[in-house]
Write a structure and sequence with these properties.
Strand content: 35-45%
CATH architecture of the largest domain: Roll
Number of strands: 10
Organism: Aquariibacter lacus
Oligomer: single chain
Strand order of the largest sheet: 1-2-5-8-7-6
CATH class of the largest domain: Mainly Beta
Number of domains: 2
Protein name: Type VI secretion system tube protein Hcp
CATH superfamily of the largest domain: Hcp1-like
Number of helices: 3
Pfam families: T6SS_HCP
Helix content: 10-25%
Low-confidence stretches: 200-213
Structural class: alpha+beta
């Protein structure tokens, strides 16, 4: 099976930001790759009891290849432009199916009142190819998940944007729990790994190939 992810990004006038997807039913949308979001409970300053905690949602982060939407998203970040809605459709294509909109998994995520919080371009080279990958993060006022039923979550008042937890953050948090001697052992282990890798060339084979490559 093949998993697909497409983004339909609408400005305040309702116009769609053009992408380069060619899949039927999603033509002209923005083709995406990885995405992530964290949802959890957070403490509220000055509150006690049942009102001391409220739901917190991270930035919505996703990656994509450079396309027609790239400079539009960069300009929106520069100008602080707010988009009315960002609709992500994630689904699995059944092998041998003629209808690409049907699959075992079909999730729709709708972000409302969206602003671009961050934009990053990553590049990698090797003897055979050059890869480019963009990483974008969106802030939003509310989010709607539709997967066999729908649920809407809203950002709490005065919510602060935060990034989804990374593996590095998880490792750092685990390292903080270690004793001083165990931390020293961990540092020495990391140094040994770095020394072993010092003579090896490092190129990124990950990412999304640019169109036409």
């Amino acid at each position: 099976m093949t998993t697909h992810c497409y983004l339909k990004l609408l400005d305040k006038g309702g116009a769609q930001v053009p992408g380069e997807a060619v899949t039927p039913a999603y033509e002209g949308q923005i083709a995406c790759a990885d995405w992530s979001i964290d949802i959890g409970m957070q403490a509220r300053d000055g509150k006690t009891g049942r009102g001391a905690r409220s739901i917190g949602m991270s930035l919505f982060k996703f990656s994509k290849a450079p396309d027609k939407s790239s400079t539009r998203i960069m300009a929106a970040l520069r100008d602080g432009e707010q988009f009315t809605q960002a609709i992500f459709t994630i689904y699995e294509e059944l092998q041998g199916s003629l209808d690409l909109t049907e699959g075992n998994f079909h999730l729709v995520i709708k972000l409302n009142q969206v602003t671009v919080h961050g934009y990053q371009v990553q590049g990698g080279t090797s003897d055979k190819e050059v890869t480019l990958k963009e990483q974008c993060s969106f802030y939003y006022q509310s989010i709607y998940f539709d997967y066999g039923g729908g649920v809407t979550l809203k950002q709490p008042p005065n919510a602060q944007a935060f990034a989804p937890a990374s593996k590095l953050n998880e490792l750092v948090n685990e390292a903080k729990k270690l004793s001083a001697s165990d931390r020293n052992n961990l540092v020495n282990l990391i140094k040994n790994i770095q020394d072993d890798d010092g003579g090896k060339s490092s190129t990124s084979g990950k990412g999304v190939k640019p169109h036409g490559s």
